[in-house]
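Feature request, filed as a ticket because there's no other form

It would be nice if the structure record came with a short human-readable summary line next to the tokens. Right now we just get the raw output. Example of a typical job, pasted below so the devs can see what we mean:
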Amino acid sequence: MNVRRRLISATAVSAATALGLGALSACSSDSAASGNTDKFDVVASFYPMAFLAEQIGGDHANVTSLTEPGQEPHDLEISTRQRAQLEEADAALYLKGLQPAVDEAVSQTGIKTKIDAAALTTLEDHGGTEHAHEGEEGHSEEEEHARDPHIWLDPVKYAEVAQGVGKAFEKADPDHAADYKKNTAALVQKLNGLNSTFENGLKDTKTKVFFTNHAAFGYLAERYGLTQEAISGLDPESEPSAARVRELQQEARADGVTTVFYETLVSDKTARTLARDAKLKTDVLDPLEGITDKSRGDDYFQVMEANLKALQAALGAK
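Raw output as currently delivered:
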């Protein structure tokens, strides 16, 4: 669809094909689809962005994801074939600050429509608390830039992003603007319903504190009057200090915490160790960075509903 494709040499296209451009795992039903079709071709950075693009783009969009199912998105490196795919796409949908390699690749491409989800809502700092607990120096720069990117875990913020994505699609592909507007409205309505379900399901609980492997649920906690205490900070791979672990053990007793949540895409070793030492249960709270066979559902809404059930059980919902 993109007229710029005429400027891409046959050599570049054949090279990209040889590198397996068409084999990139897509989030659409056509898993072998490449970024060169007659549809509105959208390259999304990872699952929450791909899901928005699919829901809003509907039949008019061909959506592929740079992050493979089961791959930890924070660790993504962009390959040559993915750079070629970005060049051929009609739009790139990403979340600036989550995946530095994607940010760099998108900034270097000549793609006309670049949609940064982080610019469509307000990002907040939920990471500084965890760093402060560590009592170590050298975190000032990280804290300063620790804007929490996990906006999709708050249905209200995710709906704000959806509205912005819908407008961007309408502008980039005006022939199908009416359908994009209709699809966006339907998605926002569904997200509003999910928000109401969470509000009702979490308004009356024995405790408001929950423990997570890393600080992915700050927006969700803030939205529903809960307190997230993360073993690690915003980086799921960071290791907590001994002092932080002792502090969490004390807090578990003081606040009636029953469960330590871990996630499917990163190691559960630290969470299970804390749970064993503090005599707590473990369960999954999925940050929805990707859908795999281990996910408790096939899409965003199903997994979010599973997350709600897990929170209700851990918090003692009445």
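Something like this underneath would help us a lot:
DSSP finds twelve helices and eight strands in the chain.
Confidence is low (pLDDT under 50) at residues 2-34, 128-145.
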